[in-house]
Amino acid sequence: MTEEAFSIDKRPLRDLLRQVEDGRAQLPEFQRGWVWPHPNIASLLASISLSYPVGTVMLLQAGGDVRFKYRPIEGATPPATATPDTLVLDGQQRLTSLFQSLKQGSPVVTQDLRKQRVSGWFYVDMRAAVDGNTDREDAIRFLPADRVVRNFRGEPVEDYSTSEREYEAHLFPLSSVFDPDDWESGFEDHWEYDKEKRKFWKTFYNEFIKPFDRYQIPVISLGRATPRQAVCQVFEKVNTGGVTLTVFELLTATFAADEFDLRQHWEKHCKAAWRAPEYRILRDVSNTDFLQAVTLLATADRHAAAARAGIPEERRPRIGCKRKDMLALALDEYERFAPVVVQGFKAAAKFLRQQYIFDTKFLPYGTQLIPLAAILALAGESAQSAGAQQKLARWYWCGVFGELYGGSTETRFSQDLPDVVDWIGGSATEPRTVEAAEFAPGRLLTLRTRNSAAYKGIYALLLKAGAVDWRTGEKAEVTGYFDESIDIHHVFPKTWCEKAGHPSEVYNSIVNKTPLTARTNRIIGGAAPSEYLVRLAKSAESTPDVVAEHIRSHLISPDRMSGDDFTGFFEDRKAALLGRISAEMGKAMGEEPATAETAVSLDDPDDTDDL
Question: 170 near 160, Cβ under 8 Å?
């Protein structure tokens, strides 16, 4: 935005409310509903009657390239053909409160302090308003819609349902503040043109009514050339007290100007496409995640078009999915790429099943789904060959065990899409995510809870290695699909480890954990492995040799367990896990940077509940 893109001036309150009334000033669709309780409105009315400042109003001139669907301010009923000249970005609650209180001509629908819906009229106690010893806010009254005040038993205690009773009680309706002549005539006639009453009216008019008529509100007006991302950023900056507006909501309002319902499309044509059980890994994909994947494809398409046109690399549109990139997404781009992205997410679910990741509980990074879906959408059939799937798996596990998708990841997304698509398409250059990924062997000792992506990744690798339940021999992914009680539990129980004097930072690490059903874990209890292996064989109605084979599927030596050799078990299991990680990443492990005694946890304390 340039300095000339906005102007600042003052506008009479009367004129602003008239624009609200006839529809020249309306709201962009993304503005949320009006929620001020009546005491707040009374305070606002009191401030204006005293000519106190009540803040600025920010308007956007309509008719520019950025179009939003619009709606009248609540309570206003402009003609259906009314087209706004300006859209209210900031000041909605104040303008709505003032319009309903002063211009609407019907009861104000609002809330009490308990957020209960109420309706009524705003009045001012004329005598209190001109009394210099009374707080002006205390002079403002909110009366029920029928103008009858009742006690807790529902009995009328005050009745102002006729104009005569208003005159008698000296209660002036604020709905008449911009056109008080008729009420003034009735007031004077009621009091038979009493000299003192006419003098009182003049004092009241000068001290209370005239400030409304003369009140001017500072207005910041954004020009028609203001870009969409600037409008949205400004809106959020001035609405710091409210709920943050999402990109999805802003694009919903923008696309609605072209009669396209983005929310309905997301619910019925996108999210609904993966409601089947086989796609449960996608159940936490949000509408913003989906928009990011669509934006990645749209910006990649712009970049490719510039390349085909011979535009130098440094001048081509960049690939990205940051906030400003999403806000620049055109409706025709969304309509073009959304169906492709839907298929990309479904392909991502299938790919993750092949990596033995079935449920969001053990999904290492939800964020990595975004570039994965975009890559599969853009690569299409070329991503389905065995060689392409191997490369894709290597990129995926490098991201997981390199722990590269925590925090702000949009820049990595924009690198992943072209890097991986080119790589699986035959390029010899490895993706930057693959190059950057490192897994230090000492990290195994600090993985203690599923808060870590690498912890969840090891769980998946154990399933991929063929881990079966020690008691039933069922594959863990089958058990987990039909019985959600499967979880990660200790191999050498905590109770036994504590008694044996092993440090908690060692026995609580992922090296001493494996996926087991709740029933199997209850059989294990807190006993030594040499004891519970016998119980397991008996419970399984099988032989120790069969149970031993089940244990080997978890990359564990049953001989170490039967001999209660924790140290030997730990070293063997650590080496086996590192070997699996190395194979999936396609990288040799580096030097050991930490020992069991010096490792510092990067995760929360152990979260398993077994003994």
Answer: no
Distance CA 601, CA 448 (A): 8
CA dist 133 and 15 (Å) reads 32
| CA–CA gap between residue 94 and residue 138 (Å, rounded) | 19
What pLDDT is stored for residue 92 in this prediction? 86
Amino acid at 139: A
State the pairing for strand pair 6-12/216-222.
antiparallel
CA-CA distance, 46 to 42, in Å (whole number)?
6
Taking the C-alpha atoms of residue 248 and residue 30, their distance in angstroms, rounded to an integer, is 10
pLDDT digits (tens, 9 = 90+) for 348-377: 999 999 999 988 988 999 999 999 999 999
Question: Cα 57 to the chain's mean position, in Å?
Answer: 27
DSSP characters for 129-157? HT-TTS-HHHHEEEEETTSEEE-TTS-EE
Instruction: Give the CA distances from residue 449 to residues 490, 507, 599, in Å, rounded to whole numbers and listed in that order.
Output: 12, 12, 15
Amino acid occupying residue 228 = R
Residues 6+ apart with CB under 8 A from 40: 97
Share of the chain above pLDDT 70, in %: 89
Residue 197 identity (one-letter amino acid) = K
Tell me the two tokens of residue 290: 């989906």
d(Cα 328, Cα 349) in Å, to the nearest integer?
28
What are the φ and ψ backbone dihedral angles of 222, each rounded to 5 degrees? Answer: -85, 135
Specify the 3-state DSSP secondary structure of 40: helix
At 431, which amino acid appears? P
CB 573 within 8 A of CB 444: no
> Helices 92-102 & 38-49, crossing angle to 10 degrees?
80
Strands 216-222 and 57-61: parallel
**Residue 261: partners with Cβ closer than 8 Å, 6 or more residues away:** 252, 255
CA distances from 50 to 71, 174, 611 (A): 32, 14, 70
CB atoms within 10 A of CB 596: 18
Give which of 520, 554, 553, 551 is closest to 538, Cα–Cα: 520
DSSP secondary structure letters along 418-435? HHHHHHHTT-SSPPHHHH
pLDDT in tens, 50-82: 999 888 888 888 877 667 788 899 889 999 888
Instruction: Say what the pTM is.
Output: 0.71
